[in-house]
């Protein structure tokens, strides 16, 4: 892209607003959530007013040799929702329409979780969704979308029944089981940003269920027995209960073991399931309570200090052996530290249940045999300097390698890992070849591209 691109011509084509560096709102419309990529700045941002704007912008960008990328919530772990060309800010596409009779919910491609839940709650209808207010629906569902209720309700993409996609030639197609079925298949777990710009999604919702939640915290000295016990509990748990089991620490603090869970049932049942863990070691905090579905959603809301971070993932179909648990604990103890209060840690997200009852090739999401997603993360602040960042990334790389002795090489595409080697296999498994065929059909010139693009 040359320096002589005249973005005013784009502004004259669209109803939305074109922002250039220095314009009010430019940073908010383009700043990546992960400050690891804060120095990547686009040449312009188009805050679209409609799906038509998206098509016009794609055609204009191709004609002017300007790289283009769509941005919903900007939460790509690898900063893939910003580039040095044109960013399509989809936040204006955030309508939520609910058909009470069919329980179908249609949402704009830039709809964020706070807007989505606000639109669903009056109807007491839901489908699996995210737990951070400003995460947008597009990135979530296109990468599969694992929610806290997915063991019962399936993935976000398992509830998807239709989506509108603006293609590389600027035209819009509607995709479902019978129309553009191959692209619809790819949109259910093949990863965002690969095939076009999704401007609308329709989901099959369902009535919400009364719920209960738990938050349990233990001191570091109980880590081995608690982590082992909780894995056994979750291996036997009904689909209605999902939990995140973790060990983490911040700088100059002792590690803490945590269990955060959501049960689609009463607290009495939840406490009984957790009884072995409560007996093996006494937590220093116990919160097990009945909640409405919406209260449970709020309770599991993801809070973060922000800053820069990196995440690497593996998976396992069974509880980790004692040596695997010990590796997790030792690594957290050895974390090099940073100024970010989010610190670092390892978490086991309980998958399985309804997720695993869908055949591997029925959707593009391939991880249908997983009990735990193993998420290894670290964080720092840009102000910490390059030496701290390097130490954190080296620590994470070493941990990821060591955990390979106990867990599979598969990785969750929504926890995007820019340092992943064989990402084609790790993200997409046996579905990669078919995804590549869909890419060749719908985007033969690879208009939509990034370092790990299909």
Automatic annotation (TrEMBL):
<protein>
    <submittedName>
        <fullName>FAD/FMN-containing dehydrogenase</fullName>
    </submittedName>
</protein>
<dbReference type="Pfam" id="PF08031">
    <property type="entry name" value="BBE"/>
</dbReference>
<dbReference type="GO" id="GO:0071949">
    <property type="term" value="F:FAD binding"/>
</dbReference>
<dbReference type="InterPro" id="IPR006093">
    <property type="entry name" value="Oxy_OxRdtase_FAD_BS"/>
</dbReference>
<dbReference type="Pfam" id="PF01565">
    <property type="entry name" value="FAD_binding_4"/>
</dbReference>
<dbReference type="InterPro" id="IPR016169">
    <property type="entry name" value="FAD-bd_PCMH_sub2"/>
</dbReference>
<keyword id="KW-0285">Flavoprotein</keyword>
<dbReference type="InterPro" id="IPR016167">
    <property type="entry name" value="FAD-bd_PCMH_sub1"/>
</dbReference>
<dbReference type="InterPro" id="IPR012951">
    <property type="entry name" value="BBE"/>
</dbReference>
<dbReference type="InterPro" id="IPR016166">
    <property type="entry name" value="FAD-bd_PCMH"/>
</dbReference>
<keyword id="KW-0560">Oxidoreductase</keyword>
<comment type="similarity">
    <text>Belongs to the oxygen-dependent FAD-linked oxidoreductase family.</text>
</comment>
<feature type="domain" description="FAD-binding PCMH-type">
    <location>
        <begin position="38"/>
        <end position="208"/>
    </location>
</feature>
<dbReference type="InterPro" id="IPR006094">
    <property type="entry name" value="Oxid_FAD_bind_N"/>
</dbReference>
<keyword id="KW-0274">FAD</keyword>
<dbReference type="GO" id="GO:0016491">
    <property type="term" value="F:oxidoreductase activity"/>
</dbReference>
<dbReference type="InterPro" id="IPR036318">
    <property type="entry name" value="FAD-bd_PCMH-like_sf"/>
</dbReference>
<dbReference type="InterPro" id="IPR050416">
    <property type="entry name" value="FAD-linked_Oxidoreductase"/>
</dbReference>
């Amino acid at each position: 892209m040359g320096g002589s691109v005249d973005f005013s011509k784009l502004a004259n084509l669209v109803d939305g607003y074109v922002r250039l560096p220095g314009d009010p709102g430019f940073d908010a419309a383009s700043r990546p959530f992960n400050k690891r990529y804060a120095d990547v700045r686009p040449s312009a941002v188009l805050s679209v007013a409609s799906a038509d704007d998206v098509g016009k912008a794609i055609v204009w960008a191709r004609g002017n040799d300007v790289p283009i990328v769509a941005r919903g919530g900007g939460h790509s772990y690898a900063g893939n929702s910003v580039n040095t060309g044109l960013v399509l800010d989809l936040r204006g596409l955030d309508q939520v329409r609910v058909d009470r009779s069919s329980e179908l919910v249609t949402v704009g491609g830039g709809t964020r979780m706070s807007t989505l839940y606000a639109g669903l709650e009056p109807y007491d209808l839901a489908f699996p969704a995210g737990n951070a207010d400003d995460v947008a629906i597009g990135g979530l569902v296109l990468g599969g979308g694992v929610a806290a209720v997915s063991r019962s309700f399936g993935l976000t993409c398992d509830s998807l029944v239709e989506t509108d996609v603006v293609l590389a030639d600027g035209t819009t197609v509607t995709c479902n089981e019978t129309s553009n079925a191959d692209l619809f298949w790819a949109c259910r777990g093949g990863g965002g940003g690969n095939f076009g710009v999704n401007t609308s999604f329709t989901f099959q919702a369902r009535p919400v269920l009364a719920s209960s939640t738990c938050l349990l915290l233990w001191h570091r000295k109980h880590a081995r027995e608690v982590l082992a016990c909780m894995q056994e509990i979750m291996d036997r748990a009904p689909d209605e209960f999902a939990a995140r089991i973790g060990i983490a620490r911040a700088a100059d603090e002792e590690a803490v073991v945590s269990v955060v869970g959501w049960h689609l049932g009463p607290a009495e049942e939840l406490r009984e399931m957790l009884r072995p863990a409560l007996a093996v070691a006494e937590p220093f905090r116990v919160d097990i309570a009945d909640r409405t579905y919406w209260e449970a959603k709020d309770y599991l809301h993801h809070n973060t200090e922000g800053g820069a971070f990196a995440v690497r993932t593996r998976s396992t179909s069974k509880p980790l052996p004692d040596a695997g648990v010990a590796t997790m604990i030792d690594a957290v103890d050895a974390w090099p530290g940073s100024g970010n209060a989010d610190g670092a840690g390892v978490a086991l997200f309980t998958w399985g249940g309804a997720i695993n009852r869908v055949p591997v090739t029925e959707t593009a999401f391939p991880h249908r045999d997983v009990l735990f997603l193993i998420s290894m993360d670290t964080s720092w602040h840009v102000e910490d300097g390059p030496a701290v960042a390097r130490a954190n990334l080296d620590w994470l790389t070493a941990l990821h390698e060591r955990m390979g002795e106990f867990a599979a090489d598969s990785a969750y595409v929504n926890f995007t890992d820019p340092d992943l080697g064989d990402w084609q296999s790790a993200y997409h498994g046996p579905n990669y070849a078919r995804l590549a065929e869909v890419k060749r059909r719908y985007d033969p010139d690879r208009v939509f591209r990034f370092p790990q693009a299909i």
